[in-house]
Amino acid sequence: MVLEDDRGKRAAWLGCDFCIVHRSVADRIKTEIRAKHDIEPAAVCVNASHTHSAPPLTETEPVVPEHFDPQYADFVVRQAVAVVGDAVGRLAPARLRYVEDRCRIAYNRRVYDAQGRALDADG
Q1: Which residue among 36, 43, 67, 79 is least enclosed by CB atoms within 10 Å?
Q2: φ/ψ of residue 119, rounded to 5
Q3: Structural domain boundaries of the chain?
Q4: End-to-end CA distance of the chain, in Å?
């Protein structure tokens, strides 16, 4: 997804189906995006879904070192940059909205009173 404000400033958000996207890979992607699409690295978010089924993107990731394929890792970087280019080419007027809510998974389930004291199950 690429967003552009009324001054022409852009931001990109990439969703990647990998367990880990190391900083070195994200930095390569951001550097290439800056060079090809003029979007500043600070305005690029590279988000990993945390799947355990995807191939590793760096030599330090795999449990079995032979599973790392540098050609595949380079391909992923090229594709990430290309998909941003596709999004830039399809920019169209849109309205961006958001909401805030509490996360209902992986959180502390204790209930607290107004003074911050934990309450038991009966309140």
Answers
A1: 67
A2: -100, 150
A3: 2-119
A4: 45
The Cα–Cα gap between 62 and 11 comes to 31
Cα–Cα dist 58/102, whole Å: 34
- DSSP structural state of residue 121: T
Can you tell me which residue has the tokens 């959180």?
A: 107
Q: Tally the C-alpha atoms within 13 A of residue 34's C-alpha that lie toward its C-beta.
A: 12
Task: Classify the phi-psi angles of 8: left when phi > 0, otherwise alpha if psi is within -120 to 50, otherwise beta.
Answer: left
Tens digit of each residue's pLDDT (9 = 90 or more) over 19-60: 889 899 999 999 999 999 999 999 999 999 888 888 888 888
| Contact status, residue 57 vs residue 76, Cβ threshold 8 Å | yes
Per the CB < 8 A criterion, the answer to whether 12 and 1 are in contact is yes
30 burial type by CB count under 10 A (0-12 exposed, 13-18 middle, 19+ buried):
buried
Q: How far is 5 from 13, CA to CA, in rounded Å?
A: 15
Among 17, 118, 121, 20, smallest CA distance to 68 is for 20
The residue type of 18 is F
